[in-house]
Every structure is written in C-alpha cells, then in structure tokens.
Amino acid sequence: MYKVFIDGQEGTTGLEIKERLGGRGDIKLLEIPGDKRKDARVKKKFINQADLVILCLPDSVARESVALADNGTTRFIDASTAHRTDPDWVYGLPEMPPFAGDNCNQTEKIRNARFVANPGCYPTGFILMMRPMVGLGIIPQEYPATVHAVSGYSGGGKKMIQTHETRDEGRMEELAARPYGFSLTHKHVPEMQVYAGLSHAPVFTPSVGNFYKGMLVHVPLFPRLFKTRMDADRIRDKLKTVYAGEKFVRVMEDPTDHYLDQGFLSPLGCNDTNRVEIFVAGHEDQILVTARLDNLGKGASGAAVQNLNIMLGMDPGTGLTA
C-alpha cells in the first residue's frame, strides 16, 4: 500500500483529491493534524514518510515543502504554478502528444518522474487543442494565438466561492460573467506558450461565470495563416487521429449543433468527470476550436489523481470517471 500525503488538504483542490482517493484500498492517506499543518518540523516528517506528496499550496509554500524532502525518494505532484515550466519537473498532462524527436510519450515521462507539475485548468484545454496543430506543422510556431475562456467560480478558491455563495440575491447579476486578466500576464500563460510550442505568448482573456464548476476554452483560428490550408472538418479529423484511444480526451463529431441547447454550449457538460471534450466548428475562412472540461476534475484534482496512478504503476483511470 502506498502512503500519500496531501500538503494543503483543506483547500478546494486538496479536498477534491482527498475525496477521490478516499476509500481506495491501495492508498493510505497520511493526514497531518490541523494545528500542525504549518509546523515545518511536523510537515517534514510527513513528507519524508510518504511515497508521494501532492502539493495544493501557494507557489512559494510549495517550493518550501519540496525543500523539506531529504530522503531522495519521496515523489511529488505539485498543483501550484511554481514548477510548471521548470525543466527539472515533468509536465503532468499524459495526453499531451509528442513533438518530432521526443523519445517517449508524456505518460512514460510521468511514470518515470520524481517531480511532476500538475497542469493548469485553462492550459489543459488550450494545449490539447493547439499543440497537435503546431506539432503536425499545420500552424506555424509564430502564430498569433488567442484564447478566450470561462470557468466556474470554484477555480478562484475559498474567497471567490464565498463571494458567489453569500452574495445578496438581488445583486447576483453582478456576478453573471466577469472577465479578468487585463494585464495580459495571467500566471497560466507561460505554460500555454511553452507546451503548445509557440514562439510568442498567446493573448489570454479568462472570465469567471456564476456557476460552481465547469469550463470552456475557445481558440479562434484563421486558416489563411496556416502553413497548410485546412478547414474545420480536416482539423477535426487530424485531432481525432491524434487522440484515438485516449480514455479522457474526446474529439466530438460534427455537427457541433448536436451538442448545443438552443444554440448554446454549456460549460457544465463534463462536470464530475476527468474528461476533456474538443469541438471544432467553422468554415474555410474561420475555425473555432473549443475544449470543455471540469476545472476541478481534469483541470485540477482529477489530473492529480491520474498522475498519481501513473506514477505508482496503476491503471491511470483508477478512481476517475471518463
């Protein structure tokens, strides 16, 4: 039985991971007393007793926790942004297709890694859409990429959850959809650029919706800027080939209208699963590629459990819903 310690188990992501691991006979959760969770000496003992530690902490605290490991064997999954573009950490997106020249796929890299950086929720959708098109030579590395996205308010943590769930009913319209990130320096942008294989950072415009969880990530494309001219149908076919056989990534069939409710695509359609759905729509002059996922599932805790399963040699889908 593997010993697992969730450092930050009281946060939104930590609680979700704990729920997904609870009751498993192959995992023993090491639980630090609540009044000792910030005591570095006590925490160090838990970290060095564990086979694997999942960090659900602010970036600076995550780095401090990693430094407490002195046994040379404890493995880490970091759900913060602290290590996502660190070359000494493996990026924890198993379905991320290899670029030409990679000597093994991402799942193998995760399986053999001691340090794995859990992806961000927005980047998970963006990278799964954009990286194959760059890797296949359809989209040039210099492409001026744009990303528009909306997420449930749980992605903002306890403070934002409280804001939405305690707001006076008469003022709920204020929370309907709130765009943010106007500095264009969102913390997820570096991993988007690096793992999509782009020469320049994408313009990223996220929004928070007045729903607890769920997410849509949209990437508009102009075929006239492609290396190879392609319409929506051919892009869809290419993505279907790339993700054929992947348990948690589905490229949805045409027509997209089949998945709409009176013309609307719900961001809630993958909630409570570890699934990413990719939709491709448009015509020969304009294409819209959309990813739908649960920001707390495949976008956070589900991804961490999937990576844990891979690192410990288990079925990647153990404890997860496809």
How many E strands? 13
Oligomer: single chain
**CATH top-level class of the largest domain:** Alpha Beta
What's the number of structural domains?
2
Strand content: 15-25%
Distance between the termini: 25 Å
Biggest sheet overview:
7 strands, mixed
Count, helices: 9
Order of helices and strands: EHEHEHEEHEHEHEHEEHEEEH
Gross geometry: globular
Quickly give the structural class. Answer: alpha/beta
Question: Ranges with pLDDT <50 over ≥5 residues?
Answer: none
Radius of gyration: 20 Å
- Average pLDDT figure: 94
- What is the percent of helical residues? 25-40%
Please tell me the CATH architecture of the largest domain by its name: 2-Layer Sandwich
Produce a short descriptive summary:
The chain has 322 residues and is α/β, with parallel strands linked by helices. Helix content is 29%, strand content 20%.
Please give the structural blueprint.
Blueprint (H helix, E strand, L loop, with lengths): L1 E6 L4 H10 L5 E4 L9 H10 L2 E4 L3 H9 L7 E4 L11 E2 L14 H6 L3 E3 L3 H15 L10 E6 L5 H10 L10 E3 L9 H8 L6 E7 L5 E7 L10 H11 L6 E3 L24 E7 L4 E7 L3 H15 L11
Parallel strand pairs: 1-2, 1-3, 3-4, 4-6, 5-6, 7-9, 11-12
Antiparallel strand pairs: 7-10, 8-9, 10-13, 12-13
Helix pairs in contact: 1-9, 5-7
